[in-house]
C-alpha cells in the first residue's frame, strides 16, 4: 500500500500555512511532529492529536494574530482537514468508524468519528474561561468543525465531565486522536466500507 501522506498549502490574505500529514509511523521510526501555529495552546493540542493518533505532522502558520486568533486557528484546522482527506485517498480498507474516551485528571471526553464523506460536527465542550493560553475557548469547537468539514468526516465530541478548561480541551483532542487512529486502521482488505461502494469525495 502506498504511503498515506499529503501536503497542503493554504494562502490567503489572512494566513499562510503549510501542512504535511502522515497517517502512519513506520515501526521503529521516530515520530515526527513539528507544529508552529503562532498560538501556543493550539500547538499543544495539535501535537497531542498527532502523538496519540499515531500520525506525523509538520504544520507552520503565519497569520494575522495582531487581529485575534480566529483566522489562524480556523485555517490551520482547514489545512489539517484537507491534508487528512488527501492522505486517506479512496478510503479503501479502513475501519471507517472510530470512538474513544480519554481522561485527563478530573476531565473525561468522548469522541466518535465516521469517515463518511458526509461532513458534520457536533461538539459539546462547556468551557468556563474565555481563553486557555492564547487560544479562545470558543474556537475549540469551531476548529473541530472546520477540520470535520475539510476532512469530509462526521464528528461528535462531548465532555462527559470536567472542570479545568485546559484539561477539558486536552481530553477532547486526545479522545479524537484515539478515535481517528481506530477509524483509519487498515483492515487488510481492499473493500470500501460503504453499501454505496464509494466514500471518497
Strand content: 25-35%
DSSP summary, beta strand count: 10
Using the alpha-carbon principal axes, give the shape. Answer: globular
Query: What is the N-to-C succession of helices and strands?
Result: EEEHEHEEEEEHEH
Mean pLDDT: 94
Number of helices: 4
Helix content: 25-40%
- What can be said about the biggest beta sheet? 4 strands, mixed
Q: Which secondary-structure class do the elements indicate?
A: alpha+beta
Tell me the span between the first and last alpha carbons.
20 Å
Order of strands in the sheet with the most strands? 1-2-4-3
Rg estimate, integer Å: 16 Å
Low-pLDDT parts are none
What does this structure look like?
With 201 residues, the chain is of the alpha+beta class. The protein is built from 4 helices and 10 strands. Helix 1 (40-52) packs parallel to helix 4 (165-183). The two termini are 20 Å apart.
